[in-house]
Design goal:
8-stranded mixed β-sheet, single chain, two-stranded antiparallel ribbon, disordered N terminus, disordered C terminus, Rossmann fold
Length: 642
């Protein structure tokens, strides 16, 4: 047994998701929240609307004197500071001396301050929001309340519960809502589950009825809507998590599966505001960023839409082929035309404008993988600018500009050759897949073609192989119907926002999350169940720590005999119409965990639960957790409710 456990641990990393998962399940404590090391800059405190000016006037968002002086010394605004000091001195001289009540609050909070942005959101989401007219609203962190007030006016809810921990600071802003019938202010943070559960009662929600059996399928509940603003700048940390907002989003998702929190009333839609960089884990735009939370979002949600957000790339490190992105945007433009969705003026993203121009000129958008890939590199724009400058003003051969041009041209040429080779190898595997799908090639012919392709791959450098498999994985996602990623399934392109539409001036995004019916086995969590849902978490943890290893190898390492039973019965992994791959005997072509779509994860769980020799849940914990005490509370907390 010791040898077997050493074997599985040599293949499956035991230091992260399976163990860290226990922390994700635990309720947040208000004493554990802290700000990240990034600082609030004075340049981010420029009010652009009346409500932003009111927020600035509270004095909560202030830069320390030392920091402000450093910035002003660098920008030459010292005279303005002296003038401000003189005004304050003159003003204070007229006022009688006495104790002044100072209003305090969390200065990391980011508020929506643009009425035009909210109006554009309603015009964009209007048809789908109308089904919530007259509903109950749970409003977490309403803050300055502009979004909350406009939402209240639009939906005319029968009850509106505002959970605001900084009630003293924001009460003057929320008064217009509190004057409405059915509006209630609860001075508690709605992201602390103890406080959130305190309002999920008949006293606050008399019209809502909890689902009796959380193990059974639930239906959509349009009579309840949850909205929250969890945008913080600087980011708040929680224990080892860089972003509190991401942790809250993850737990909101998990409540869909477990039927806890407000999801106990059915499938409740969520409208969540957050920083533009908080959504990457739940709504990735490429395979490299698709981790467990994104996979769970695909299994638990009908859609996750970004309604509005920052216009620009999410990261310069994690990219996919430019042609794939163009194809994705062209597809969403086609959907928008069919649904007659138009983007409000000034809200078009650069990608959508390019797609519209291409459509207008009737340029045909090529299918992903039909030509050599192109990746947007930071140096490519610099090269274009230098070459344009070189045409009008010729650089000498010994100048730095000329040397930079030559260096970038050499790099571009090298990349072009590498991408051409990637295309040839990728097309070779596509040809094998086409022969397999046609049914005209025998099994022996497929194996021969696969062996030849494998030999070609073995001759390549390791870095090239990794780049090719990543490229192939992204093609695998976009070619499925529907595509794997929620991003590629989007019904509309996000509207572009500006920093000055928020205070402090930090670009935020709005996520629209609609739950769906979760697979019955995934709902089986906790000691009163057959532990199928908890088992999937352990399997997924083991798989995702070795996401580029063939699935068959990980199953064998996870428990002896698992691959022998599951792989022959798992039909979809070789069904090219449902996310499968051709049966090529090569580690470079076999299906890996990160290639599995949501339905394939569900099929894996179904087959595991059918396996007569599957291990008991506690045995699987001992197999996958690096702990000397298999019965520890942390291990058994996996899959428990909040």
């Amino acid at each position: 047994m010791f040898c077997a456990r050493c074997h599985v641990r040599s293949l499956i990393s035991l230091s992260s998701p399976a163990v860290v998962r226990t922390w994700i399940r635990r309720p947040l404590s208000s004493t554990c929240l802290r700000s990240s090391s990034a600082k609030l800059e004075k340049s981010e405190l420029r009010p652009s609307t009346p409500i932003a000016e009111q927020l600035a006037a509270t004095g909560v968002w202030k830069i320390s004197r030392g920091k402000a002086k450093e910035e002003e010394d660098g920008t030459g605004t010292g005279a303005d500071e002296d003038a401000d000091k003189a005004k304050r001195a003159k003003s204070s001289a007229k006022k009688p001396k006495g104790k002044k009540t100072k209003v305090t609050g969390d200065k990391t909070r980011v508020n929506i301050v643009s009425e035009r942005l909210i109006d554009d959101v309603f015009s964009y989401l209007g048809p789908s929001l109308k089904r919530h007219i007259g509903c109950d609203i749970i409003d977490i962190y309403p803050g300055a309340g502009l979004w909350s007030r406009k939402l209240h006016e639009y939906l005319k809810p029968r009850s509106h519960i505002l959970m605001e921990p900084d009630a003293d600071l924001y009460r003057p802003f929320l008064e217009p809502i509190l004057e409405k019938p059915g509006a209630t202010l609860v001075p508690k943070p709605g992201i602390i589950w103890r406080d959130l559960n305190s309002i999920l009662t008949p006293e606050y929600l008399p019209h809502q009825t909890p689902v009796e059996d959380t193990f059974q399928p639930s239906s959509r509940n349009d009579t309840l809507l949850v909205t929250a603003n969890i945008a913080f700048h600087p980011r708040k940390k929680y224990r080892s998590f860089e972003s509190l907002a991401f942790l809250v989003l993850h737990q909101f998702l998990d409540s869909i599966r477990s039927g806890s929190l407000f999801q106990k009333y059915g499938q409740v839609r969520m409208l969540i505001w957050g920083r533009h960089d908080d959504k990457g884990g739940i709504l990735p735009k490429n395979m490299q960023r698709r981790k467990r939370t994104a996979i769970e979002g695909e299994m638990y949600c009908e859609w996750i839409h970004e309604v509005c957000g920052r216009d620009g790339p999410e990261s310069i490190w994690f990219l996919r082929d430019t042609g794939t992105d163009i194809y994705s945007t062209a597809s969403v433009l086609k959907k928008m035309k069919q649904s007659r969705i138009s983007v409000p003026e000034g809200r078009h993203t650069k990608a959508l404008l390019a797609a519209m121009a291409s459509s207008k000129s009737r340029r045909r958008v090529k299918a992903p993988g039909s030509e050599p890939p192109v990746f947007k590199r930071p140096f490519s724009e610099s090269l274009s600018e230098l070459e344009a400058a070189h045409e009008s003003q010729v650089f000498t051969m010994d100048s730095e500009e000329y040397k930079t041009i030559k260096r970038y041209q050499w790099r571009m040429s090298t990349e072009d050759k590498r991408h051409q080779k990637m295309h040839e190898l990728s097309s070779g595997l596509d040809a094998i897949a086409a022969a397999y799908k046609s049914g005209k090639a025998t099994r022996g012919e497929i194996e021969k073609l696969g062996a030849e392709w494998h030999e070609s791959m073995q001759a390549c450098a390791k870095a090239f192989v990794q780049e090719l498999t990543t490229y192939r994985g992204n093609l695998h996602y976009i070619r499925q119907d529907p595509p794997v990623l929620h991003w590629d399934r989007r019904a509309f392109e996000p509207m572009a926002v500006r920093p000055d539409e928020f205070f402090p001036n930090v670009e935020c995004c709005l996520l629209d999350i609609q739950p769906k019916d979760v697979h019955p086995l995934i709902r089986q969590v906790g000691p009163r169940s057959n532990r199928a849902g908890d088992t999937l978490e352990l399997i997924m943890s083991a798989f995702m720590t070795q996401s580029t290893t063939p699935v068959s190898r990980i199953l064998d390492a996870l428990w002896p005999g698992a691959a022998e039973f599951i792989m022959p019965k798992w039909k979809s992994i070789h069904d090219l119409d449902h996310g499968g791959v051709p049966p090529v005997k090569s580690p470079y072509a076999e299906i890996t965990p990160r290639m599995l779509n949501a339905r394939q994860w569900e099929e894996l769980l179904e087959l595991w639960m059918q396996w007569p020799f599957r291990p008991e849940f506690h045995e699987l914990i001992a197999r996958t957790h690096d702990t000397d005490d298999p019965g520890s509370a942390d291990d058994w907390n996996v899959g428990s409710e909040f």
